């Protein structure tokens, strides 16, 4: 049977201590011994090298043997009952006799092994009544203190009395895990550490993580020699996670750090707030010191008490702040912003706008204008900050109590060190910003934090100087609390909604004015149209009358003059036709006639009967069975009249017009639309046709593809047809090939839209 130790021998120094695997050191402190017992069969798989000092059995005698084989069935039953009762990691320790020696043990599960850590009960014990009295006294602190700091001070004093340590500190972290001695009880002859700060490098990240898992850590003698843990060499990567261990050996870097401070023993109790490491109760003794289980339990209870009070006391403080900020918010929220030019000017002057987040100044940037009140930067600086924040936050929100960390070039931090920014709209960088001025802070460090690592001829090591070092922190405001930022966000959101309503109102007003202008313009156009169709027709009729009289006189008129007068008369007639078509086009959109069911077969028959006999005699019109459509009869009559007339008009010389009017058997969609079906009417002819590239432009008003000498017309007819189809919520399309005729397709909705 081959045995090896699992000591982690990776070289640890100041350059890699942040990555040190302190949870798997492979060794323990010597004030107890450790057994790793397989969960499935209770075979001893790990054993510390010092087992013989406590039970006269060497690790080589224990490894690979079952727990009952070594210690007997009674001991095994005691262990399994303890595990089955769910007492692991509880305040109830395991009392067990091993090889005739009484031990108090902690038991926890690590991977597939139960870790049993045994300490003899021979340690001097404090009377249970004394522990009870100290705990009872602490309970009186809860009702007898006003401030949280005062409570922490009494906790430090009580913990020192019950444990007997030379120094007890309540140590709290900031957001960057720099530490501050928040409260302290210390032996009279020792230098106090109260108020001192320590850099985050003093407690690296992996150590902070372990503090959240294992809430009590004890080092009984800083100068201890680590005891290796041995195991059967049956797996190359075999190790043991000691994150929850009470005997776990600590980092040599941490030992050196404590030695530099002159500390002989320590007790550390974690203070957890909202699942995060809020701080520590750190106990220092300047000589070796161990504690009985009862005292450790009482000390840990102090930590639980103070942790509960962190939540309660801070919640009370936050509640009071939230109550005041909410009152300010409610007072402001009943105010309604208007579209008046001075609305933001009046808003920023309201005291409640500053009270809702306890700010010293506020500015609103809206549509290029700055409105501000209180302690604010200059306008050009506000413009600079506004533009930067809009880009940085992507028109969102931003909070900081040290703006210079984000904008180093911003130098006027005295007026605006801390800000709360909320965008009000994407356009024009509209926003609201609250400001807090600089609050100069003096921080007393236990040594220069920039020299937490020293380098000498021996290499790098933890700092050995804890001499007072003062730092003045500038360009930083008082931190914004959560109730303050929440209330500011709620008000900004409310303000954003009101601004959107203002913008909508402004748009509505703009469209209302445009609508009024459009009505006025349409009225003027109707007057012009009236003049065009009535007043202008009067001189045209006179021109036609006078020209006709001249041509009917008895005296002889030269032939050239007669030709000129006839052309003048024809031009006047064309102009009169154009004016009548324009009148039809403009009147079409103002019709109020109601839709009704129209029989197209009867409608087309009525149209053909009313046409000039000279046209119908030489034209073949074939009408198939057509569906009924919903429409305005007189407009549909005009529509089909125009289309039939066009088919007859645009025919090649010597060709008899042939027109076919048909409809598919079932309704169709238009341009792949899926929500509407249309009855389609196709009007095809054998006319001259046109190039398909003009298929859309021919429906524009006054568009002609041929000269007036070739084919008569005003260029309004097809535009009129398109307008009629639009009034019927339908479409008209044209498909044509030069010399082969044209197909006009009319799309009428099956159901009126």
UniProtKB/TrEMBL annotation:
Protein name: histidine kinase
Species the sequence originates in: Flavobacterium rhizosphaerae
Alphabetical list of SUPFAM superfamilies matching this protein: ATPase domain of HSP90 chaperone/DNA topoisomerase II/histidine kinase (SSF55874), GAF domain-like (SSF55781), Homodimeric domain of signal transducing histidine kinase (SSF47384), PYP-like sensor domain (PAS domain) (SSF55785)
UniProt domain Histidine kinase: residue ranges: 531-752
Protein family (similarity comment): In the N-terminal section; belongs to the phytochrome family.
Enzyme class: transferase
Enzyme Commission code: 2.7.13.3
Pfam families per record: GAF, HATPase_c, PAS_2, PHY
Gene Ontology terms for molecular function: ATP binding
Residues in Phytochrome chromophore attachment site domain copies: 147-304
Sorted UniProt keywords: ATP-binding, Chromophore, Kinase, Nucleotide-binding, Phosphoprotein, Photoreceptor protein, Receptor, Sensory transduction, Transferase
Reactions this protein catalyses: ATP + protein L-histidine = ADP + protein N-phospho-L-histidine
């Amino acid at each position: 049977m081959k045995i090896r130790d699992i000591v982690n021998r990776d070289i640890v120094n100041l350059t890699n201590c942040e990555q040190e695997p302190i949870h798997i050191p492979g060794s323990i402190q010597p004030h107890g011994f450790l057994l790793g017992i397989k969960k499935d069969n209770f075979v001893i798989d790990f054993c510390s090298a010092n087992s013989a000092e406590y039970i006269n059995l060497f690790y080589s005698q224990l490894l690979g043997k079952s727990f009952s084989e070594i210690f007997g069935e009674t001991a095994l039953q005691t262990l399994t009952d303890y595990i089955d009762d769910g007492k692991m990691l509880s305040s109830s320790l395991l009392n067990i006799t091993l090889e005739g020696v009484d031990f108090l043990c902690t038991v926890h599960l690590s991977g597939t092994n139960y870790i049993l850590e045994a300490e003899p009960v021979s340690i001097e014990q404090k009377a249970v009544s004394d522990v009870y009295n100290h705990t009872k006294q602490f309970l009186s602190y809860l009702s007898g203190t006003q401030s949280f700091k005062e409570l922490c001070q009494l906790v430090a004093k009580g913990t020192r009395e019950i444990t007997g340590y030379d120094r007890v500190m309540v140590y709290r972290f900031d957001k960057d895990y720099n530490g501050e001695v928040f409260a302290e009880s210390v032996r009279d002859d020792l230098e106090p550490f109260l108020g001192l700060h320590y850099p985050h490098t003093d407690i690296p990240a992996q150590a902070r993580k372990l503090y959240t898992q294992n809430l009590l850590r004890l080092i009984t003698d800083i100068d201890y020699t680590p005891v290796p843990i041995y195991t059967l060499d049956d797996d190359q990567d075999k190790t043991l996670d000691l994150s929850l261990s009470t005997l776990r050996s600590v980092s040599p870097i941490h030992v050196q750090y404590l030695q530099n401070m002159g500390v002989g023993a320590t007790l550390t109790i974690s203070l957890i707030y909202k699942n995060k490491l809020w701080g520590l109760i750190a106990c220092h003794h300047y000589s070796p010191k161990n504690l009985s289980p009862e005292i450790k339990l009482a000390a840990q209870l102090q930590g639980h008490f103070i942790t509960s009070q962190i939540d309660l006391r801070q919640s009370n403080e936050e509640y009071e702040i939230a109550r005041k900020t909410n009152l300010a918010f409610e007072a402001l929220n009943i105010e309604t912003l208007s579209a008046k030019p001075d609305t933001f000017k009046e808003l920023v002057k309201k005291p409640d706008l500053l009270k809702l987040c306890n700010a010293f100044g506020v500015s609103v940037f809206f549509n290029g204008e700055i409105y501000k009140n209180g302690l604010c930067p200059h306008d050009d600086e506000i413009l600079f900050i506004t533009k930067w924040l809009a880009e940085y936050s992507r028109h969102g929100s931003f909070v900081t109590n040290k703006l210079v960390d984000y904008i180093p070039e911003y130098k006027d931090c005295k007026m605006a060190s801390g800000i709360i920014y909320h965008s009000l709209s994407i356009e024009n960088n509209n926003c609201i910003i609250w400001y807090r001025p600089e609050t100069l802070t003096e921080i007393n460090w236990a040594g220069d934090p920039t020299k937490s690592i020293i380098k000498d001829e021996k290499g790098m090591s933890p700092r050995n100087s804890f001499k007072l070092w003062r730092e003045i922190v500038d360009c930083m405001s008082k931190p914004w609390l959560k109730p303050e930022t929440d209330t500011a966000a709620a008000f900004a959101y409310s303000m954003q909604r009101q601004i959107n309503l203002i913008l909508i109102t402004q748009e509505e007003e703009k469209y209302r004015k445009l609508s009024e202008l459009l009505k006025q313009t349409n009225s003027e156009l109707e007057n012009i149209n009236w003049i065009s169709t009535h007043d202008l027709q009067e001189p045209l009729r006179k021109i036609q009358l006078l020209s006709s009289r001249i041509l009917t006189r008895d005296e002889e008129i030269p032939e050239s003059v007669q030709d000129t007068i006839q052309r003048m008369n024809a031009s006047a007639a064309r102009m009169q036709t154009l004016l009548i078509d324009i009148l039809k086009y403009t009147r079409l959109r103002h019709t109020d006639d109601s839709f009704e069911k129209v029989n197209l077969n009867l409608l087309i028959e009525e149209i053909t009967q009313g046409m000039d006999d000279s046209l119908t005699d030489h034209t073949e019109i074939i009408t198939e069975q057509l569906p009924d459509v919903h429409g305005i009869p007189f407009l549909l009559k005009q529509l089909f009249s125009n289309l039939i007339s066009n088919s007859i008009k645009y025919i090649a010389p010597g060709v008899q017009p042939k027109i076919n009017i048909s409809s598919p058997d079932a309704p169709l969609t238009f341009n792949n639309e899926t929500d509407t079906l249309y009855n389609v009417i196709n009007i095809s002819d054998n006319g001259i046709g046109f190039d398909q590239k003009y298929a859309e432009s021919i429906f524009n008003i006054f568009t002609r593809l041929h000269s007036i000498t070739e084919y008569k017309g005003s260029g309004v007819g097809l535009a009129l047809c398109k307008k009629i189809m639009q009034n019927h919520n339908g479409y008209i399309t044209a498909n044509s090939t030069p010399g082969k005729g044209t197909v006009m397709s009319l799309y009428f909705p099956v159901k009126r839209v």
